[in-house]
Amino acid sequence: MDKIPEPTIERLFCYYRCLEKEKNSLGQSHICSNLLGEKVGIKPALLRRDLSFLGHMGQKGKGYNRFLLKKALAQFIGLDQGWEIALIGAGNLGKALIKYDKFKEMGLFIKNIFENDLNKIGREIGGYIVQNVKDLKETIENKEIKIVIVATDDKDIKDVTSQLKQTNIRAVWNLSSENLDLGDDIIIIKEDLCCSLGSILCKINK
Amino acid sequence: MDKIPEPTIERLFCYYRCLEKEKNSLGQSHICSNLLGEKVGIKPALLRRDLSFLGHMGQKGKGYNRFLLKKALAQFIGLDQGWEIALIGAGNLGKALIKYDKFKEMGLFIKNIFENDLNKIGREIGGYIVQNVKDLKETIENKEIKIVIVATDDKDIKDVTSQLKQTNIRAVWNLSSENLDLGDDIIIIKEDLCCSLGSILCKINK
Question: Which of A1, A148, B23, B58 is the most exposed place for a label (fewest CB within 10 A)?
Protein backbone atom coordinates (compact mmCIF):
# COMPACT_ATOMS: atom_id res chain seq x y z
CA MET A 1 0.00 0.00 0.00
CA ASP A 2 1.16 3.55 -0.71
CA LYS A 3 2.33 5.52 2.28
CA ILE A 4 -0.68 7.33 3.71
CA PRO A 5 -0.22 11.09 4.12
CA GLU A 6 -0.32 12.38 7.69
CA PRO A 7 -3.38 14.65 7.18
CA THR A 8 -5.29 11.74 5.61
CA ILE A 9 -4.73 9.68 8.76
CA GLU A 10 -6.22 12.45 10.88
CA ARG A 11 -9.18 12.88 8.56
CA LEU A 12 -9.92 9.14 8.40
CA PHE A 13 -10.56 9.33 12.10
CA CYS A 14 -12.91 12.28 11.64
CA TYR A 15 -14.95 10.33 9.07
CA TYR A 16 -15.23 7.47 11.55
CA ARG A 17 -16.36 9.84 14.30
CA CYS A 18 -19.00 11.34 12.04
CA LEU A 19 -20.46 7.94 11.11
CA GLU A 20 -20.28 6.78 14.73
CA LYS A 21 -22.20 9.84 15.92
CA GLU A 22 -25.01 9.11 13.51
CA LYS A 23 -25.25 5.39 14.12
CA ASN A 24 -28.44 5.67 16.15
CA SER A 25 -30.19 8.10 13.85
CA LEU A 26 -32.55 6.76 11.23
CA GLY A 27 -31.36 7.38 7.74
CA GLN A 28 -30.27 6.06 4.40
CA SER A 29 -28.04 3.00 4.32
CA HIS A 30 -25.65 4.90 2.04
CA ILE A 31 -24.02 8.30 2.27
CA CYS A 32 -22.51 10.23 -0.64
CA SER A 33 -19.15 11.98 -0.46
CA ASN A 34 -20.84 15.39 -0.75
CA LEU A 35 -22.94 14.85 2.37
CA LEU A 36 -20.22 13.18 4.45
CA GLY A 37 -17.78 15.88 3.34
CA GLU A 38 -20.20 18.60 4.38
CA LYS A 39 -20.65 17.04 7.80
CA VAL A 40 -16.92 16.89 8.53
CA GLY A 41 -15.99 20.08 6.68
CA ILE A 42 -13.87 18.37 3.99
CA LYS A 43 -14.22 18.87 0.23
CA PRO A 44 -15.79 15.77 -1.46
CA ALA A 45 -12.85 15.18 -3.84
CA LEU A 46 -10.39 15.12 -0.95
CA LEU A 47 -12.68 12.85 1.04
CA ARG A 48 -12.91 10.38 -1.86
CA ARG A 49 -9.13 10.36 -2.18
CA ASP A 50 -8.74 9.76 1.56
CA LEU A 51 -11.21 6.88 1.54
CA SER A 52 -9.54 5.31 -1.49
CA PHE A 53 -6.80 4.19 0.91
CA LEU A 54 -9.32 1.73 2.36
CA GLY A 55 -9.84 0.05 -1.00
CA HIS A 56 -12.88 0.34 -3.25
CA MET A 57 -15.59 1.38 -0.84
CA GLY A 58 -17.83 3.70 -2.84
CA GLN A 59 -20.52 2.73 -5.35
CA LYS A 60 -21.19 5.04 -8.26
CA GLY A 61 -24.51 6.83 -7.85
CA LYS A 62 -25.06 5.37 -4.36
CA GLY A 63 -22.09 6.54 -2.35
CA TYR A 64 -20.68 4.65 0.61
CA ASN A 65 -22.52 2.02 2.64
CA ARG A 66 -22.48 3.60 6.10
CA PHE A 67 -22.17 0.33 8.01
CA LEU A 68 -19.40 -1.11 5.85
CA LEU A 69 -17.49 2.15 5.68
CA LYS A 70 -17.60 2.58 9.44
CA LYS A 71 -16.46 -1.01 9.94
CA ALA A 72 -13.61 -0.60 7.46
CA LEU A 73 -12.51 2.65 9.11
CA ALA A 74 -12.65 1.08 12.58
CA GLN A 75 -10.47 -1.82 11.46
CA PHE A 76 -8.07 0.46 9.63
CA ILE A 77 -7.65 2.81 12.60
CA GLY A 78 -7.63 0.08 15.23
CA LEU A 79 -10.93 0.97 16.88
CA ASP A 80 -12.30 -2.55 16.58
CA GLN A 81 -10.66 -3.25 19.95
CA GLY A 82 -10.34 -1.44 23.31
CA TRP A 83 -7.10 0.35 24.21
CA GLU A 84 -5.75 0.90 27.70
CA ILE A 85 -3.78 4.11 27.84
CA ALA A 86 -1.40 5.48 30.49
CA LEU A 87 -1.36 9.13 31.50
CA ILE A 88 1.58 10.91 33.10
CA GLY A 89 0.52 14.10 34.85
CA ALA A 90 -2.45 14.42 37.19
CA GLY A 91 -2.75 18.21 36.99
CA ASN A 92 -5.75 20.12 35.64
CA LEU A 93 -5.23 19.04 32.04
CA GLY A 94 -4.62 15.42 33.03
CA LYS A 95 -7.79 15.38 35.12
CA ALA A 96 -9.82 16.78 32.23
CA LEU A 97 -8.52 14.03 29.94
CA ILE A 98 -9.34 11.29 32.45
CA LYS A 99 -12.91 12.58 32.64
CA TYR A 100 -13.23 13.11 28.87
CA ASP A 101 -16.13 10.81 28.02
CA LYS A 102 -15.49 10.81 24.28
CA PHE A 103 -12.30 8.79 24.73
CA LYS A 104 -14.25 6.09 26.56
CA GLU A 105 -16.96 6.05 23.89
CA MET A 106 -14.26 5.20 21.37
CA GLY A 107 -12.77 2.40 23.44
CA LEU A 108 -9.81 4.45 24.70
CA PHE A 109 -9.49 4.02 28.45
CA ILE A 110 -7.14 6.05 30.64
CA LYS A 111 -6.92 3.70 33.61
CA ASN A 112 -3.31 4.23 34.65
CA ILE A 113 -2.31 7.62 35.99
CA PHE A 114 1.25 8.52 37.01
CA GLU A 115 2.86 11.45 38.80
CA ASN A 116 6.15 12.36 40.38
CA ASP A 117 4.52 14.92 42.65
CA LEU A 118 4.31 13.15 46.02
CA ASN A 119 1.27 15.27 46.95
CA LYS A 120 -0.70 13.78 44.09
CA ILE A 121 0.45 10.13 44.30
CA GLY A 122 -2.13 7.96 46.08
CA ARG A 123 -5.06 10.28 45.34
CA GLU A 124 -8.07 9.06 43.38
CA ILE A 125 -9.13 10.60 40.08
CA GLY A 126 -12.06 9.30 38.08
CA GLY A 127 -11.97 6.02 40.00
CA TYR A 128 -8.24 5.37 39.59
CA ILE A 129 -5.40 5.83 42.07
CA VAL A 130 -2.52 8.06 40.96
CA GLN A 131 0.67 5.99 40.91
CA ASN A 132 4.33 6.92 41.26
CA VAL A 133 5.92 7.51 37.85
CA LYS A 134 8.69 5.14 38.99
CA ASP A 135 6.16 2.29 38.60
CA LEU A 136 5.53 3.22 34.96
CA LYS A 137 7.75 0.53 33.44
CA GLU A 138 6.23 -2.29 35.48
CA THR A 139 2.62 -1.25 34.79
CA ILE A 140 3.25 -0.79 31.07
CA GLU A 141 4.82 -4.24 30.84
CA ASN A 142 2.13 -5.96 32.90
CA LYS A 143 -0.77 -4.37 31.07
CA GLU A 144 0.90 -4.32 27.66
CA ILE A 145 0.16 -0.62 27.28
CA LYS A 146 1.25 0.86 23.97
CA ILE A 147 0.20 4.50 24.27
CA VAL A 148 1.18 7.08 26.88
CA ILE A 149 -0.21 10.60 27.22
CA VAL A 150 2.23 13.10 28.69
CA ALA A 151 0.53 16.05 30.37
CA THR A 152 3.12 16.96 33.01
CA ASP A 153 4.72 20.20 34.05
CA ASP A 154 7.71 21.09 31.90
CA LYS A 155 10.04 20.76 34.87
CA ASP A 156 9.25 17.04 35.11
CA ILE A 157 10.02 16.26 31.46
CA LYS A 158 13.59 15.03 32.02
CA ASP A 159 12.45 12.58 34.65
CA VAL A 160 9.50 11.45 32.53
CA THR A 161 11.75 10.98 29.49
CA SER A 162 14.10 8.69 31.41
CA GLN A 163 11.15 6.65 32.70
CA LEU A 164 9.62 6.35 29.23
CA LYS A 165 12.95 5.27 27.71
CA GLN A 166 12.89 2.16 29.87
CA THR A 167 9.56 1.00 28.46
CA ASN A 168 8.60 -0.61 25.17
CA ILE A 169 5.71 1.72 24.37
CA ARG A 170 4.81 2.46 20.76
CA ALA A 171 3.51 6.02 20.88
CA VAL A 172 3.31 9.15 22.99
CA TRP A 173 0.81 11.99 22.81
CA ASN A 174 2.87 14.86 24.18
CA LEU A 175 0.72 17.65 25.57
CA SER A 176 3.56 19.33 27.45
CA SER A 177 5.37 22.25 25.89
CA GLU A 178 8.73 20.45 25.96
CA ASN A 179 10.08 18.11 23.31
CA LEU A 180 10.49 14.47 24.25
CA ASP A 181 13.68 12.85 23.05
CA LEU A 182 12.76 9.17 22.85
CA GLY A 183 14.54 8.04 19.70
CA ASP A 184 13.11 7.23 16.30
CA ASP A 185 11.18 4.07 17.17
CA ILE A 186 8.48 5.73 19.22
CA ILE A 187 5.73 7.70 17.47
CA ILE A 188 5.40 11.10 19.11
CA ILE A 189 2.53 13.46 18.43
CA LYS A 190 3.10 16.82 20.05
CA GLU A 191 0.20 19.09 20.76
CA ASP A 192 1.09 22.34 22.46
CA LEU A 193 -2.03 24.22 23.49
CA CYS A 194 -0.12 27.50 23.56
CA CYS A 195 0.95 27.03 19.94
CA SER A 196 -2.66 26.59 18.85
CA LEU A 197 -3.79 29.74 20.58
CA GLY A 198 -0.64 31.52 19.43
CA SER A 199 -1.28 30.68 15.79
CA ILE A 200 -4.77 32.18 16.14
CA LEU A 201 -3.23 35.41 17.44
CA CYS A 202 -0.79 35.42 14.56
CA LYS A 203 -3.59 35.06 12.02
CA ILE A 204 -5.62 37.87 13.56
CA ASN A 205 -2.55 40.06 13.63
CA LYS A 206 -1.82 39.62 9.90
CA MET B 1 4.54 40.20 1.87
CA ASP B 2 4.12 36.67 0.55
CA LYS B 3 1.32 34.67 2.11
CA ILE B 4 2.74 32.82 5.09
CA PRO B 5 2.13 29.05 5.08
CA GLU B 6 -0.06 27.72 7.89
CA PRO B 7 2.63 25.46 9.42
CA THR B 8 5.10 28.37 9.45
CA ILE B 9 2.66 30.40 11.54
CA GLU B 10 2.45 27.60 14.10
CA ARG B 11 6.22 27.18 14.19
CA LEU B 12 6.89 30.92 14.58
CA PHE B 13 5.01 30.69 17.82
CA CYS B 14 7.12 27.73 18.95
CA TYR B 15 10.32 29.69 18.29
CA TYR B 16 8.95 32.52 20.39
CA ARG B 17 8.08 30.11 23.23
CA CYS B 18 11.54 28.63 23.16
CA LEU B 19 13.25 32.03 23.41
CA GLU B 20 10.81 33.15 26.10
CA LYS B 21 11.55 30.08 28.20
CA GLU B 22 15.25 30.81 28.16
CA LYS B 23 15.03 34.54 28.82
CA ASN B 24 16.19 34.22 32.42
CA SER B 25 19.00 31.80 31.74
CA LEU B 26 22.50 33.16 31.26
CA GLY B 27 23.81 32.57 27.81
CA GLN B 28 25.06 33.93 24.54
CA SER B 29 23.42 37.01 23.07
CA HIS B 30 23.02 35.14 19.78
CA ILE B 31 21.63 31.74 18.86
CA CYS B 32 22.33 29.86 15.62
CA SER B 33 19.65 28.12 13.60
CA ASN B 34 21.13 24.71 14.43
CA LEU B 35 20.76 25.20 18.18
CA LEU B 36 17.35 26.87 18.05
CA GLY B 37 16.19 24.20 15.61
CA GLU B 38 17.39 21.44 17.93
CA LYS B 39 15.54 22.96 20.88
CA VAL B 40 12.22 23.13 19.06
CA GLY B 41 12.68 19.96 17.01
CA ILE B 42 12.77 21.72 13.60
CA LYS B 43 15.43 21.26 10.92
CA PRO B 44 17.70 24.36 10.66
CA ALA B 45 16.96 25.00 6.96
CA LEU B 46 13.22 25.04 7.61
CA LEU B 47 13.70 27.27 10.63
CA ARG B 48 15.73 29.78 8.58
CA ARG B 49 13.02 29.81 5.92
CA ASP B 50 10.33 30.37 8.56
CA LEU B 51 12.23 33.24 10.15
CA SER B 52 12.88 34.85 6.77
CA PHE B 53 9.23 35.96 6.86
CA LEU B 54 10.23 38.39 9.63
CA GLY B 55 12.78 40.11 7.39
CA HIS B 56 16.56 39.83 7.59
CA MET B 57 17.09 38.75 11.17
CA GLY B 58 20.11 36.43 11.05
CA GLN B 59 23.79 37.42 10.83
CA LYS B 60 26.15 35.14 8.98
CA GLY B 61 28.45 33.33 11.40
CA LYS B 62 26.66 34.74 14.47
CA GLY B 63 23.10 33.57 14.10
CA TYR B 64 20.11 35.44 15.50
CA ASN B 65 20.23 38.03 18.27
CA ARG B 66 17.99 36.42 20.88
CA PHE B 67 16.53 39.67 22.19
CA LEU B 68 15.78 41.16 18.77
CA LEU B 69 14.42 37.89 17.39
CA LYS B 70 12.10 37.43 20.35
CA LYS B 71 10.90 41.02 20.05
CA ALA B 72 10.28 40.65 16.30
CA LEU B 73 8.40 37.38 16.85
CA ALA B 74 6.29 38.92 19.64
CA GLN B 75 5.32 41.84 17.41
CA PHE B 76 4.65 39.60 14.44
CA ILE B 77 2.44 37.23 16.43
CA GLY B 78 0.75 39.93 18.48
CA LEU B 79 2.23 39.00 21.86
CA ASP B 80 3.46 42.52 22.53
CA GLN B 81 0.03 43.20 24.07
CA GLY B 82 -2.34 41.36 26.43
CA TRP B 83 -5.41 39.56 25.05
CA GLU B 84 -8.65 38.99 26.87
CA ILE B 85 -10.26 35.77 25.69
CA ALA B 86 -13.77 34.39 26.22
CA LEU B 87 -14.42 30.73 26.92
CA ILE B 88 -17.70 28.95 26.26
CA GLY B 89 -17.98 25.73 28.26
CA ALA B 90 -17.17 25.38 31.95
CA GLY B 91 -16.80 21.60 31.94
CA ASN B 92 -13.62 19.68 32.81
CA LEU B 93 -11.74 20.79 29.70
CA GLY B 94 -12.84 24.42 30.12
CA LYS B 95 -11.74 24.42 33.75
CA ALA B 96 -8.33 23.04 32.80
CA LEU B 97 -7.88 25.82 30.23
CA ILE B 98 -8.87 28.53 32.73
CA LYS B 99 -6.23 27.23 35.13
CA TYR B 100 -3.58 26.74 32.42
CA ASP B 101 -0.80 29.05 33.65
CA LYS B 102 1.08 29.09 30.36
CA PHE B 103 -1.68 31.11 28.69
CA LYS B 104 -1.37 33.79 31.38
CA GLU B 105 2.43 33.84 31.04
CA MET B 106 1.94 34.71 27.38
CA GLY B 107 -0.54 37.49 28.06
CA LEU B 108 -3.61 35.44 27.12
CA PHE B 109 -6.25 35.85 29.81
CA ILE B 110 -9.44 33.80 29.98
CA LYS B 111 -11.50 36.12 32.15
CA ASN B 112 -14.95 35.59 30.65
CA ILE B 113 -16.56 32.18 31.01
CA PHE B 114 -19.93 31.29 29.53
CA GLU B 115 -22.30 28.34 29.85
CA ASN B 116 -25.84 27.44 28.95
CA ASP B 117 -26.02 24.85 31.73
CA LEU B 118 -28.01 26.59 34.47
CA ASN B 119 -26.27 24.46 37.10
CA LYS B 120 -22.92 25.96 36.18
CA ILE B 121 -23.96 29.60 35.64
CA GLY B 122 -23.11 31.76 38.67
CA ARG B 123 -20.38 29.43 39.94
CA GLU B 124 -16.83 30.66 40.36
CA ILE B 125 -13.89 29.15 38.48
CA GLY B 126 -10.36 30.47 38.82
CA GLY B 127 -11.67 33.71 40.27
CA TYR B 128 -14.29 34.40 37.59
CA ILE B 129 -18.05 33.92 37.69
CA VAL B 130 -19.56 31.70 34.98
CA GLN B 131 -21.98 33.80 32.93
CA ASN B 132 -25.03 32.86 30.86
CA VAL B 133 -24.07 32.31 27.22
CA LYS B 134 -26.94 34.68 26.36
CA ASP B 135 -24.77 37.51 27.70
CA LEU B 136 -21.96 36.63 25.28
CA LYS B 137 -22.71 39.35 22.72
CA GLU B 138 -22.85 42.14 25.29
CA THR B 139 -19.62 41.09 27.05
CA ILE B 140 -17.74 40.67 23.78
CA GLU B 141 -18.82 44.13 22.63
CA ASN B 142 -18.06 45.83 25.95
CA LYS B 143 -14.65 44.24 26.36
CA GLU B 144 -13.77 44.23 22.66
CA ILE B 145 -12.95 40.52 22.81
CA LYS B 146 -11.67 39.09 19.53
CA ILE B 147 -11.04 35.43 20.40
CA VAL B 148 -13.46 32.83 21.78
CA ILE B 149 -12.59 29.31 22.87
CA VAL B 150 -15.39 26.79 22.43
CA ALA B 151 -15.14 23.82 24.79
CA THR B 152 -18.80 22.91 25.16
CA ASP B 153 -20.70 19.67 24.92
CA ASP B 154 -21.62 18.81 21.35
CA LYS B 155 -25.32 19.10 22.16
CA ASP B 156 -24.86 22.82 22.88
CA ILE B 157 -23.15 23.64 19.59
CA LYS B 158 -26.26 24.87 17.76
CA ASP B 159 -27.07 27.29 20.54
CA VAL B 160 -23.43 28.44 20.80
CA THR B 161 -23.26 28.94 17.02
CA SER B 162 -26.29 31.21 17.03
CA GLN B 163 -24.85 33.24 19.93
CA LEU B 164 -21.45 33.55 18.22
CA LYS B 165 -23.06 34.66 14.96
CA GLN B 166 -24.42 37.76 16.69
CA THR B 167 -20.95 38.92 17.72
CA ASN B 168 -18.12 40.56 15.81
CA ILE B 169 -15.35 38.23 17.00
CA ARG B 170 -12.37 37.53 14.77
CA ALA B 171 -11.44 33.96 15.69
CA VAL B 172 -12.62 30.80 17.40
CA TRP B 173 -10.56 27.95 18.82
CA ASN B 174 -13.02 25.09 18.53
CA LEU B 175 -12.23 22.26 20.94
CA SER B 176 -15.60 20.59 20.55
CA SER B 177 -15.99 17.68 18.17
CA GLU B 178 -18.65 19.50 16.11
CA ASN B 179 -18.01 21.86 13.23
CA LEU B 180 -18.94 25.50 13.74
CA ASP B 181 -20.65 27.14 10.80
CA LEU B 182 -19.82 30.83 11.28
CA GLY B 183 -19.21 32.00 7.72
CA ASP B 184 -15.94 32.83 6.02
CA ASP B 185 -15.00 35.99 7.94
CA ILE B 186 -14.20 34.28 11.22
CA ILE B 187 -10.97 32.32 11.60
CA ILE B 188 -11.75 28.91 13.05
CA ILE B 189 -9.08 26.54 14.33
CA LYS B 190 -10.55 23.16 15.19
CA GLU B 191 -8.74 20.88 17.56
CA ASP B 192 -10.50 17.62 18.26
CA LEU B 193 -8.74 15.71 21.03
CA CYS B 194 -10.25 12.44 19.81
CA CYS B 195 -8.78 12.95 16.34
CA SER B 196 -5.30 13.40 17.81
CA LEU B 197 -5.52 10.22 19.83
CA GLY B 198 -7.21 8.46 16.91
CA SER B 199 -4.40 9.32 14.53
CA ILE B 200 -1.93 7.82 17.01
CA LEU B 201 -3.93 4.58 16.99
CA CYS B 202 -3.98 4.61 13.23
CA LYS B 203 -0.19 4.98 13.06
CA ILE B 204 0.38 2.14 15.52
CA ASN B 205 -2.00 -0.02 13.58
CA LYS B 206 -0.20 0.46 10.24
Answer: A1
